[in-house]
Design goal:
With about 70 residues, the chain is an alpha+beta fold. It is built from 1 helix and 4 strands, in the order E-E-E-E-H. It has a domain of about 40 residues. Bound molecules: zinc ion. The site of zinc ion (ZN) has 8 residues, from loops.
């Protein structure tokens, strides 16, 4: 399967960011995360753990409740 080092997912909205296309990035615990927009970056930055899931458990996102729905 694909490794996660070439492509990134926007953890906030779930959008796939192709390599080097992430204009908005933020670091958390030594990892760099890419985002599609300033809004997504800010949302992640405010509470990174809300968006980080364990690998292989990408079913459902119960931690996303309470987010504003606008984009
Ligand atoms: Zn996004």
């Amino acid at each position: 399967m694909a490794k996660t080092c070439s492509n990134q997912w926007d953890l906030v909205c779930g959008m796939l960011l192709e390599n080097s296309e992430a204009e908005y990035t933020d670091e958390f615990e030594g990892k760099t995360y890419g985002f599609c927009s300033q809004w997504c970056k800010d949302s992640f930055h405010a509470n990174p753990k809300r968006f980080i899931e364990m690998p292989g458990s990408h079913k459902g996102t119960p931690t996303l409740k309470g987010l504003p729905e606008e984009h």
